[in-house]
Specification:
147 residues, alpha/beta, Ribosomal Protein L13p, Chain: A, four-stranded parallel beta sheet, 5 helices, 18% strand
Amino acid sequence: MQKTYMAKKEDAGVTFRREWYVVDATGVPLGRLASKIATILQGKHKPTYTPHFDVGDYVIVVNAEKVKLTGKKLDQKLYYRHTGYIGHLYSMPYRKLIARRPELPIKLAVRRMLPKNKLGRRMLRKLKVYAGPDHPHQAQRPTSISL
């Protein structure tokens, strides 16, 4: 009889290894990109996946400014932030946000697809997003994947 595998802290270096992946966001819809990245960060693509333990891999996203949105979302999609004071809810359209901080929409989309707890915040630290085609993680020898 086979037993279900559950990862433990002691197995961290032995049973599973963290890989590094590079994803090019050029022309890929934002939601599809974010869901694939969230799957890799959680480790759901591995047979050693355990819901209560971080077994995911690192993801480097390049060309974040060239991510695609469908329909009229470029002008109609709004990002909100609140200062904590009454009446201080600010909104910014996607077009303006991508001009100011091109990596933020991808980071927010992925963050909202991860668990809302300490584990999710730990997983999000393994996401590296860059606006242009260059990244400083060549030493990790990342594998390029296409979505």
